[in-house]
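Recall the central idea of this unit: under ordinary conditions, the amino acid sequence of a chain determines the structure it adopts. In this exercise we apply that idea directly, starting from the sequence alone.
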Amino acid sequence: MDRLSVKKLIIILLALVNIFLLVLVISITKQEADSERLRSKALLDILANHGISLEDGTPLPAKCPDIIILERSLKKERSMLSSLIGSCSYENQGGNIYIFGGHDAVGQASIRGTGDFKIALDTSVVPVETDHLAAAETTLKKLGIKYNKKSLKLGKEDGLVRVTATCTYRKHDILNAKINLYFSDSQLLFLTGRRPPDIKTDSVDVNNDLDGIAIVMNFLEYIRRSGQVCNTIQGITTEYFIDSATIGDCTLTPVWCIETDAGTFYFDGVTGKARSLEK
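Accordingly, the structure predicted from this sequence is:
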């Protein structure tokens, strides 16, 4: 067999391999689509048997995100605050509570090991140039705090304008990590709330059998036992709860959120048990 014939044979074999791989990918994709359709149909059937409907277009997550372990970094906290209040130093107040400030700073901050904090600002550090929401977003970006833009809420408290934002981690809301920014008509006065620590030290795969259907079954059992009534599920998402310790370590625990016409219900992504937002 001459060299030209060998080259043609190799080209033909490569083409056949590519065709085989293409058919395999199409087959796998079709199987996944069929599996998703069966999962959705099974979910609808289960809910219908309990007199509950699922809003059209509601996605069904297959699993929760990883458990994330974070720890505190005073260096990163000082860097974060310097972008807002200027050059600052810190002092340990005991109980892993640190005060950040200094002669050149235009404000003062207190941050606990749990991630709870308060930042008080001098006048005109963050003026309200267009509106309070825009000023709040500018402040959060300066601090490098990731947040859900859709979570921004405008309100009033003790005569001040309050903007509330929910922190996020990799596009998942941290449901019990919220920040409140308080404004006068013309400037930001102070902000307070809880944020996740800066350093990721580990992540743990949630290796269990809890998928969307299993969580819905837990939800149905929960409302049956509690006597609560709902008619429609409006959304099913996976988010995070932050569980903090005063030493500066925290765990982001995945949680399933089932939004209904009777309120939102939370289920631990590891145990599958109902959780309260306050815990």
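The first helix runs from residue 3 to 49.
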